[in-house]
Give the backbone structure.
Amino acid sequence: MHKTTVVERIQNQVFELFPLARKQAIDGNLSLLDSGILDSMGILELVTALEAEFGITFSDEDMTSEAFDSIDSLAALVESKLALSLPAES
Amino acid sequence: MDFLVHHMLRTTAERFADKEALVQGTRRLTFAEFASQAAGVARGLREAGLRRGERVAVFLEASLEQSLAILGISQAGGVFVPIHHSLFPHQVEHILSDCDVTGLITDSRKLAPLQEHLPAEGAPRWVALCDPDSGEVSRLPQYSFAEWCAGEVASGWQDWRIGRDLAAILYTSGSTGKPKGVMLSHENLLAGAAIVSDYLHITSADRTLAVLPFSFDAGLNQLMTGIAQGAAVVLQDALFARDIVRALQAEQITGLAGVPPLWNLLVQPSSGLARAELPHLRYVTNTGGALPQTVLRRLREALPATQVYLMYGLTEAFRSTYLPPEEIDRRPGSIGKAIPNTEILIVNDEGRPCGPGEPGELVHHGPTVSLGYWGQPELTAQVLRPHPFPPPGLSNPPLVCYSGDLVQSDEEGFLYFLARRDNQIKSSGFRISPTEIEEVLCRSGLVQEAAVVGVPHEALGQAIVAYVRPLEGSEVDIEKLMLFCAENLPRHMLPKSVEVRDTFPKTSSGKIDYPALRRLAVASAEGSAAGRARP
């Protein structure tokens, strides 16, 4: 259940910032980078939005094209940050 | 004597044959290789039937092929038309047909979505593809760019052009309508390279990181100065700011030109700029909009040993003013003074010169004044006009460029940008015409009327705000409208916000009152910024 929530919250942020991603998700194409939906300014906006949404801070090492390529890969990154920042119950 | 763009490459290839000229990832070309492959492209173009002065579009990401195409087209006697890689098919099609290109140099991935937008007859008549394994993908005659590059060129090559001839067309937006092609002569480009090399002190010891696209005047100038001086140009199309910082280190970059959004990315902590050792980075330059003072301060803190040049220019005059690094602290917000060999005038509405502190239009006189807009004599005549204060005895005063930018000077003649005279928007370093976005909004069929303005924005220069009037008896589906925009406009042209209004402020003649709408948008942006709690 937890996983779904994180994915959905990321999805909402991505769809809000990048309307084309919604259509693409329906079309079944999941790469945000190959399609050019995410450019460098877009990544910065997404980072700012996700940091605010989850109360996390991305580090230098987190900024990779692998991590930002899809909603699933972003979810994996965010989950790993959440696990670090909230070690106990959540 | 060097008077054509490719002459600079020929001369530099003789002086610095084995020196690095272009770098793209792990691919590297020396000046000798660059010159020889560009000559091969020129031969290929002529064999494909190119005649003097014909236009060839280059629709590619930053790559060795893009630079080879530009230089090859120059040498073949053609006119190169670089097209920004993020443009959408209908925008590319506008450029191809507007200047009636003979050929298109691209790759199969970029050609595929474009195919259905290409007319059955007319521009372009052939394509050259840069990916070697593309196969036959076009119904047009198709050439292999790689084969052109490998071609041998016999001695005794004849140039077909002189320095005054058209070398390049750069598409840029005005305040209305579709993008227009600014025509640059070989003389313009050579003068721009010489002038910028002079005030940035660029020599063969320099290595510049080219992140600005070559479809943009300042971007193209990076390539031209590198070729003119024998400096290496490292091509970079980075997604993450830290990739740029890594390239600055790994490639021992000495000069970096950027636009405000780039500096905003680089001063984010995650870029690693402040922690990086960059002993080689001699200068950075900003153009394409004012750098916010906060970003400038953080940039200078991160790069204490690097000189910061703030520049101002418009495509119609290529490059215009710069603020020397030593003046930054004394004159915050200034765009500086005229570049070398250039006269900058400030002219008021009555056509008289302005004194210090008196607002007027910036007027540019010098060797980088362009040849005007392709196929647009009336628009050209509005922007390129006779020198307002010609020397006595001259029967035909030289043409100068009226910028449309309102500026004023201080007592020492340093200039300060005040505002645009028209409704043109500048966002992310791009010039954007409101009508282009309004057309897409209306084409969606979801709104009755649309008006687009720019409001000040820290990172983007200006953010795009769209006002829309709903269809009668219905509500506007904003989500659907934004999706339509995203499908039809590149990201830098997407509205940041859409506001629904039942009426628009109008002028006495019934046109949309843009200044009034802009005031509304600014007030609303300030209101929401004040009301927004930090999450």
